[in-house]
Amino acid sequence: MAELTTKHVFEGTLEEVFEGLRQYAKYPDYLPGVTSTSVLPPQASGSVCQVRYDMKFIKSFHYTLNMFEEQPARIHWNLADSNIMKVSSGSWDLKDLGDRRVQAVYTLDVGFSALVPQKIVDQITKANLPLMMKGFQKLISDRQAGL
User: How far apart (Å, rounded) are the C-alpha atoms in residues 39 and 101?
Assistant: First the structure.
């Protein structure tokens, strides 16, 4: 299992950051390794949708998450299906810091099948984290600009 928690401060209001993070269909345009997403009807009780992610980090793989949203300050998920993961759960917990700044606490708990090399696990869970946060800030900023 790979677990991580990180904090990041995004520029924008609480509502803008929340809305940016929930733009699942736009993730391929902003996040490294995400080749496509499909937003699907909810299957789990209380979820707002399922999102299937197709990824490419050394190897191609996919997974589908049950997405839960608690506007305007929390998004969390759990695994519905995957071809390489046994577990995937996590969350975004948002806190308004004022002055158009929002602290986001990102947590992730992922467990892969024994066949996944550690290099791929590290790239998915840790190595791309700074690029992922930059991608999310660009997505939030583009939404603020009406793009």
Answer: 28
Q: What angle, 0 to 180 degrees and rounded to 10, lies between the N-to-C axes of helices 14-21 and 129-144?
A: 120
pTM, 2 dp: 0.91
What's the CA gap between 144 and 11, in Å, rounded?
10
Residue 79 CA to residue 24 CA, distance in Å, equals 15
User: What CATH number should be reported for the domain holding residue 83?
Assistant: 3.30.530.20
Nearest Cα residue to 90 out of 102, 104, 106: 106
In the chain, how many domains are there? 1
Range(s) of the domain holding residue 67: 2-144
> Is 135 in contact with 33 (CB distance < 8 Å)?
no
- Interval 61-97: pLDDT, tens: 999 999 999 999 999 999 999 998 999 999 999 999 9
pLDDT, tens digit, 9 for 90 and up, residues 19-44 = 999 999 999 999 999 999 999 999 99
